[in-house]
Amino acid sequence: MLKIALAGSTGMLGIDVGAVLKGANFQVRNFNSKNMDITVASQVETGIKAFNPDYIINCAAYTRVDLAETEKVKTDAVNNTGAKNLAEAAISTGSRLIHISTDYVFDGKKKTPYTEDDEKNPLNEYGLSKLKGEEAIKNSGASYLIIRTGGLYGKNGNNFVNTILKLADSRKKIEVVNDQFITPTYTKDLAYALSEIIMKDNSKNETYHLTNGGHTSWYEFAIEIIKVFKRTNTEIIPISSDKLNRPAKRPHNSILDNSKIKEDFSISLRHWKDALKKYCNDIGYFIR
Ligand SMILES: NC(=O)c1ccc[n+]([C@@H]2O[C@H](COP(=O)([O-])OP(=O)(O)OC[C@H]3O[C@@H](n4cnc5c(N)ncnc54)[C@H](OP(=O)(O)O)[C@@H]3O)[C@@H](O)[C@H]2O)c1
Q1: Residue 241 DSSP code
Q2: pTM (two decimals)
Q3: The domain containing residue 40 runs over which residues?
Q4: In whole numbers, what is the pLDDT of the chain averaged over residues?
Q5: Quick check: is 103 in a domain?
Q6: Which of 108, 128, 173, 208 can bridge 122 by disulfide, Cβ–Cβ 3.0-4.6 Å?
């Protein structure tokens, strides 16, 4: 039975990854900031050595994109140093590291979906720290896979879908940006894909993009959420991102090209609209 050390086991993606891997009969050990702070090399070394896993999956990250602009040191410690510490532990135990990264390593100026080797130019501190984490892993000599994803939502975290649903309970109108394009991605779909990647793994060091299929704007996504979850009394109003004036800049185009993982692993996730319907079925909100 393959042994998997799961860093970030309490996070939105980590909870689904843990459940899916356990269901697929992997032996999973959960790690979070309480039992293994990834910013502290000695804790990572001790925690990983004690389990001696075949794989380390890193779902741990500092993910508060706006706060990261002022919490630069903490953001870098978790997303850059933390990734490096896990890579070093992977070397000492001979484990393979699967690291989750983000569309925010790109600046969004490209007119078509981003491929893995497109130029990186993060617009914010979060994206910069995640890019540094990727580079630390690549330069470490560890065996690795880096999976970049984007627009995550799932049952166990703060995310766009849950925010729209909460707002729809109290507001007649919600303003949403219509000039940022993404592919919403259901954490459960990504979790099943990670399990499949492990089963088909070829031990090569590679970076892949992996999101649900298709793409949309946050505005169109909000309209679909209102429709699928039957909250149609609330109106979604399009606005430009300049109007929001958030501390961290976001890329206008965050769409990732998933063809490489389809070619190498025969993995492609369902269309984002189908994934949203599945999420609705899974959490049962449509019953209200
Ligand atoms: N959310 C998105 O839309 C999105 C988009 C693209 C990529 N991603 C990437 O996907 C991955 C998962 O994101 P998520 O949204 O599931 O994150 P999340 O819900 O914010 O969870 C973060 C996890 O990281 C752990 N963590 C934070 N600091 C830590 C530390 N110092 N030591 C050990 N563990 C620590 C947390 O543990 P505690 O509970 O103990 O604090 C938690 O389990 C991340 O790599 C993120 O960059 C996310």
Answers
A1: H
A2: 0.97
A3: 3-159+185-214+255-269
A4: 96
A5: yes
A6: 128
